[in-house]
């Protein structure tokens, strides 16, 4: 197993040790994504399988993304379907397969849009333009 260190503030894996000149068991660290600063023991840990053939940080990001999509589909699918029917996007007597396809598309779209916006926010923060 591999241990990936994540920022406790934003969850990013963009952690660097801040050089203080001292050798320490618990080094000062900084998140280059959100600017959080603290000590190594304050970081969150994510465990990835050793057998992964991709960068361990990417494996963690993919797992979080997959978990987010699963929770989004589980928790929001019914609400999205009801909203589509009540708003008139689709008829109330629509084929359940069609409704399922539309709800899946809505979940995937929300998932993609959220991840894209997170990336935009992190880019803005790293350039000092974000709120």
Written description of the protein model:
The chain is an alpha+beta fold and 131 residues long. It has two domains: 2-48, no CATH class; 56-126, no CATH class. The chain is 48% helix and 15% strand. It contains two helices and five strands, in the order βββββαα. The strands form two sheets. A three-stranded antiparallel β-sheet has the order 2-3-4, with no helix packed on it. The protein has a two-stranded antiparallel ribbon with strand order 1-5. A hairpin with a 5-residue loop joins β3 and β4.
Which key phrases capture this entry?
131 residues, alpha+beta, elongated, 2 domains, two-stranded antiparallel ribbon, 2 helices, 3-stranded antiparallel sheet
Tell me the domain tally: 2
The portion of residues forming beta strands comes to: 15-25%
Gyration radius from CA atoms, angstroms: 20 Å
Taking pLDDT < 50 over at least 5 consecutive residues as the criterion, the unreliable ranges are: none
Number of helices: 2
Please give the share of residues in helix.
40-55%
Give the total of beta strands. Answer: 5
Could you provide a short overview of the structure?
With 131 residues, the chain is an alpha+beta fold. The chain is 48% helix and 15% strand.
SSE order and pairing:
Elements lengths: L1 E5 L8 E3 L10 E4 L5 E3 L4 E5 L7 H32 L8 H31 L5
Antiparallel strand pairs: 1-5, 2-3, 3-4
């Amino acid at each position: 197993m591999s241990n990936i260190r994540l920022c406790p503030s934003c969850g990013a894996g963009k952690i660097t040790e801040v050089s203080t000149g001292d050798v320490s068991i618990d080094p000062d660290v900084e998140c280059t994504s959100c600017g959080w600063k603290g000590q190594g023991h304050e970081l969150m840990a994510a465990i990835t399988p050793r057998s992964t053939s991709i960068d361990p940080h990417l494996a963690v990001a993919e797992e979080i993304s997959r978990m987010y999509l699963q929770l989004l589909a589980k928790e929001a699918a019914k609400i999205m379907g009801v909203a589509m029917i009540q708003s008139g996007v689709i008829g109330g007597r629509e084929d359940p397969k069609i409704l399922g396809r539309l709800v899946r598309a809505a979940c995937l779209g929300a998932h993609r849009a959220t991840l894209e916006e997170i990336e935009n926010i992190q880019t803005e923060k790293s350039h000092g333009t974000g709120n």
